């Protein structure tokens, strides 16, 4: 079975609707047809200063949310990045193949370093995409289900794999991004030209998977819509309505054209009300299940330990190949 791997950062209090529709739902679908590995990238989370107790909580919560959303530990391996030290070792080797200019051109790094200023920007933020490339290449990964904002990092990963293969002989599988067609970039409800993001200044435009159903409904009812009153899908002219239609369609399975027809002559208020119902119906079971799973951290930790053991089996083989190729002597 072809291999799929993906990961999320345990930053922010919880995952959000963008993470869910952009990536997590694809993970669940792909585990049926692929050999799946899903990782919580706790080392990546260290690039922003985080309280150690919070990091522990968030790592468990992220893993619990994967499971609650439908990742099945019988079919997919679930693990923490820091439990597989091969990731950081491969990241070092890959960093020696990465151009300084190349890394400087990563738009997420440019955005973040501009926002914080260069003194407050740490080197981990700069080499972040190289560690991500290691996460992927360490498992001979063929497909990487992610949202649109990870596309450039995936391109870098492919470039590094090809560069390594060119220099040292065929070693890595060159992975492909797997993006959902309509929800690769779920927009912020308050600013529909921006993506829904954990680092947004306000949480009013973000549906958190742990939000109470009443809060979810309120956020959607308060979503910024566009001028006019017609419910039509038009990303340029009506980004707010388009975002709501895409969210509805992705969760209800109803086509966008059918939704437009059904809401013809009705206002934005009706649309929002229905989107709120659809989102609550989808997310409330995820929230409830997450809370149940968090009640038994020992079981969660045991699952993560199993996942890490399986991951290390694969990662160890690939890393041994890399060490040999680049000329590192085996320990006698
Ligand atoms: P992260 O933690 O920021 O986001 C996790 C996943 O959610 C997707 N996503 C979105 N999709 C649609 N609309 C949105 N508004 C939205 N916001 C986030 C992201 O594209 C991502 O798929 N660098 C990665 C984590 C990572 C990784 C990896 C991913 C580390 N190693 C290896 C894949 C493979 C990140 O920060 O994602």
TrEMBL record:
Top EC class, one word: ligase
Keyword Mitochondrion listed: no
Name the UniProt record assigns to this protein: Tryptophan--tRNA ligase
InterPro entries, sorted: aa-tRNA-synth_I_CS, aa-tRNA-synth_Ic, Rossmann-like_a/b/a_fold, Trp-tRNA-ligase, Trp-tRNA-ligase_bac-type, Trp-tRNA_synthetase
Binding site for L-tryptophan: 135
Protein's job: Catalyzes the attachment of tryptophan to tRNA(Trp).
Reactions the enzyme catalyzes: tRNA(Trp) + L-tryptophan + ATP = L-tryptophyl-tRNA(Trp) + AMP + diphosphate + H(+)
GO MF, one example: tryptophan-tRNA ligase activity
Protein family: Belongs to the class-I aminoacyl-tRNA synthetase family.
Database matches in NCBIfam families: trpS
CDD domains: TrpRS_core (cd00806)
Domain of life: Bacteria
One GO BP annotation of this record: tryptophanyl-tRNA aminoacylation
Binding site for ATP: 9-11, 18-19, 147-149, 186, 195-199
Keywords: Aminoacyl-tRNA synthetase, ATP-binding, Cytoplasm, Ligase, Nucleotide-binding, Protein biosynthesis
